[in-house]
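During the reporting period the student researcher (J.K.) took over the structure-prediction task from the postdoctoral fellow and processed the backlog of single-chain submissions. One of the processed entries is reproduced below for the supervisory committee.
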Amino acid sequence: MSSSPRTTGQDRLWSVDEHLEDILTAVRPLEPIELQLLDAQGCVLVDDVTVPVSLPPFDNSSMDGYAVRVADVAGASEEFPAVLDVVGDVAAGQADLVQVGPGQAARIMTGAPLPPGAETVVPVEWTDGGLGEGPVTGMRARAQAPEGAEGQVHVHRPAEARAHVRAKGSDVRAGDLALEAGTVLGPPQIALLAAIGRGTVRVRPRPRVVVVSTGSELVQPDEQLADGQIYDSNSFALTAAARDAGAIAYRVGAVADDADTLRATIEDQLVRADILVTTGGVSVGAYDVVKEALSHVGDEDEAGSGIEFRKLAMQPGKPQGFGSIGPNHTPLLALPGNPVSSYVSFELFVRPAIRTLMGLADVHRPRTTATLISGKALTSPKGRRQFLRGTYADGSVSPVGGAGSHLVAALAHADALIVVPEGTESVEPGTEVEVVLLG
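J.K. obtained the following C-alpha cells:
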C-alpha cells in the first residue's frame, strides 16, 4: 500500500479479482499466541500436535459388568450358568486393582481398568447381578448395596477374549499425529487436546474486527424514526457476518456525516482492531464522509499507510476503498452504504481478509455450478460482474428479489450469490451458472 492515495486508482475501472488480490497481498496472518483451550476455540492451530500418551492409556471396560476369565464362562447359559466368586469392585479411576483368579469375577464399571488376571468383560445384563435370580438390567448402587461386590454371581452367557474391552491406544497411540497445523479448533478438537493432556495450545488468534457505519440519517433499532431517517442495519449485518467468518467483532454506532468525527472515531477504535470496516460514504456525493475523511490520510499518517478509493467493474458494490491506517498499519476496508452492496462486498472482500488474518489456507466461500431456474432471462450490465441473490438446492439456483442494492428483505431469504460474468448481458433459464454458497 502506498504512502499516499494512488489517484490513478480512481481513474479506471478495477476488476473484482484485481481488488481482491490487492487486499490479500497486503493482509498477513496474525502472530501466534499461546491460549487456554477454551479461549482457543475457533482459532487456527499453528503447530502439529502429537500424542504424548496413548488414549486410552490402559485397557478398560466399555460396559458395566463383570471382569472374568474366558474359560470360566465358556458354555454358560441361563439353564446352566457359570457361578463365580465376586472378589471385589473395580471402579473408574481406581489404581489398586483386585486380582481375578480361576473361578473368580470382579464387578467392573464402564471406563475402569481391566484388572490383572481378567481376560474379558461380561455385561451385567448377562448375569443375575449377584442376586441369585434371573438376568438383571443393571447394578444396584454400591452405596445402597455394598454387599454386591461380594458373594457369587451367575453368568448366563459366554464371552470371547477381550470382549467389551477398550484396548490401550485403540483411539490414538503415543507419538501419533493428533491434529495438523492449520486445523480450526472446534469442540471435537478441543476435546481431543484435553484428552491427551494439553491445557494450552499455540494458535493464531481470532481477528478483532471493528465495524463502523456512517450516515446522519441512521437511527439505532428500537429508537423512534423521524422524517428522512432509517434504521442502521448495515452495522448489524456486517458485525454478524464478521463473527460468522470467525472473528471477534465490535459494532460502533452510526457516525454522522462529519469527516472530523469519523476520523476521531476510527482513531479511537484502532486500539482494539486488527481490521476496520466502514460502510457508507464512499461514492461521489457531496456527503460521502468516508471518502472525505480518509482520502488523504496517508499524507499525515506514517509511511506505508493510506486509503485508496476505487470503482470496481461489479454490481452491486461499484465504489470501494482499501488501505491501512494508524501506527500499526491496520487494514481498513471501506464498503458502500446500500445494504446489499455492503453485504456482497463483505462476502467478496472482507471475509477473505478475515480468514487470511486467521491463517486459514482456504479463505473463500465454496463455489459450484447450478442450473438457473427462472421465469425469465436474467440481464446484467455490460462490462460488470453481477452478483444476484439466489436460493440454491439440489444443483439448481433461483433468483430472489430484483437487482436493486437496497432490497434487504430479498437478501434475508438468499443462501447463494448467482455470478454473471462481465462479458454476459443475458442469462437464459436452464443455463449453467456459477454460484457462491453463503450458508
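The committee noted the following: Confidence is low (pLDDT under 50) at residues 1-8.
J.K. will present the remaining backlog at the next meeting.
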